[in-house]
Amino acid sequence: MEDALLTLIVLIISWRWADWRHWKQYYPTILFWSLGNTIYCYLTVDKPLWKFTTIIPSSLANIIMALVIFPCVGLLFLPYFPKQTILKKFLYICSWTFIFSLIEWWALKINHFAHYNKWNLTLSIIFNLGMFTLIQIHYKEPRWAWLISLVTAIFIMKYFEIPLKA
Predict the structure, then answer these.
(1) What is the rounded distance in angstroms from the CA atom of residue 145 to the CA atom of residue 166?
(2) For burial by CB atoms within 10 Å, which of 11, 58, 71, 130 has the most?
């Protein structure tokens, strides 16, 4: 129930404030984000770091994230990204990190989300900070975002001993 409510809230907020007129401008970055999540799901299917534990199957929850939540959040995050000082940009990324981390904390408390294999909320906060930074980098310089993603993925897979699927 809470998952449906959260999805509905994201849809309502994005319906009202997202930049739907210019969706094509943000589409490549939204695909990058969704593809990154899909690759994570594939690579960690046997040894996840985090996973949805709701009444709906985890695979369906990941599809909802990729096809509904990420596009809606992308259309809220990218158009309003500050063009002013580095401090304002940093605070903007921190505010989105806080929102995502707070939702994760809440989902953990109601047992709709779980951490595995040494992952924890502190690592999620760091990951969210990097994720929102990377989304903005992709929007401006996609090649750099792909390179940073590759290096980060290799590091995470080595550090958490996630086997590469054949």
Answers:
(1) 25
(2) 71
